[in-house]
Design a protein that fits this description.
InterPro entries: ATP-grasp, CPAse_ATP-bd
Strand content: 15-25%
Low-confidence stretches: none
Distance between the termini: 48 Å
Helix content: 25-40%
Protein name: Carboxylate--amine ligase
Number of helices: 14
Number of domains: 3
Number of strands: 17
Radius of gyration: 21 Å
CATH class of the largest domain: Alpha Beta
Shape: globular
Pfam families: CPSase_L_D2
Largest sheet: 8 strands, mixed
CATH architecture of the largest domain: 2-Layer Sandwich
CATH superfamily of the largest domain: ATP-grasp fold, B domain
Structural class: alpha/beta
GO molecular function, one term: ATP binding
Keywords: ATP-binding, Ligase, Nucleotide-binding
Mean pLDDT: 96
Amino acid sequence: MSGELQPVILGADIGVYALARSFHEQYGVQSVVVAGAALGPVQHSRIVRHEIVADGHDPRQLVDRLLEVARHLPDRRLLLMANSDWLVRVVVQHREELEKFYAVPFLSQELLDQISDKATFAEICDRLGISVPRTIVQDFATGAADVAVDLEFPVIAKAASSADYQDVEFAGKKKVFEIATPAELAWLWGALRGAGFQGRFVVQELVPGDDTQMRSITAYVDSHGEITLLCSAHVLLEEHTPSGLGNPAAMITDRDDAMLDQARTFLAATGYRGFANFDVKVDPRSGQFRFFEVNPRIGRNNYYVTAAGANPTRFVVEDVVEGRSVPPVVVDREVLYAVVPHRLLLRYVRDPQLAARVRRLVKSKAVAHPLSYPGDLSPRRRLYILMALVNQVRKFRKYYPEVTSTGF
């Protein structure tokens, strides 16, 4: 590939802006963002150029626009990124068309189907000796009777594949459900059937512990199967809105080699390629790492990796655009990543040692907010960031007013 690098990103959320920011910091380039609307995080930005499609949920429209963008930029080295599971699926399913123009750094369709399904992910981890919560599967495609759930309540229920659940609508829909009784579970199964859901749901044992027991891992596996980037973070607080539950809102980058070794095992054994983002919880009863899922992409909160000194765009560009091997990096710089006000965060961090770490990082200015980019702070963006922080306070007051022992 010759010519100037041109990142093209599907989506319009905070993770897409964070990626565009990382590309701009590393290469000084403006990213093309293809979506159904210019949402707040990417609106009024100097570092993105918008390509708006009439229906951002229509895969054909998205792919056609990507092809159109490519035809208008014949001299650029085009790199395609996506930052939600269903958009990754769109790219992988249309890889043959897209690869004529773009570098497409994603895993194979076969592996995507296996690992993006939480039930199959659990089976793979079991086989590799990686601990996962005990998992029971309810399949809605077969018309079968409700599966027997012999777990202690409360339990956790969530779609096996978030891509299958994306467009399902019903009253009370959440990303993750905490189910207190068998009657509540029966209600959920009824609601899903009523909404015409045809996929699988998993019911899992609830691993105790608040948000501070959660961990995040970001990895990049190059086109030769070498794991060139590993970065882990200690989650301090997650989002608690029904649609955002489980997305980290604040974390401290924190190298944990024992946990990273398990991620390495998974990536090597499955023949993984591209970015991966693992959700892990430390079981306070045993200290064991319990792997919940792997997202087949870089992750919504990817900027914590850049903030800690390892801009992830460099790893993918040098690999699939420039065809060069990158010496592997394991990040060990400590930084506080937060999309909530620090004062609000400290209300939820009850562990005195963790709270002291937060204060120390704030005091030393080792902090990052993905939207707060000095190179892109027009008055309208400053206002948006301020309003987003105020909105976080309102959301936590409504959905998670006090810390709980389970994070629900």
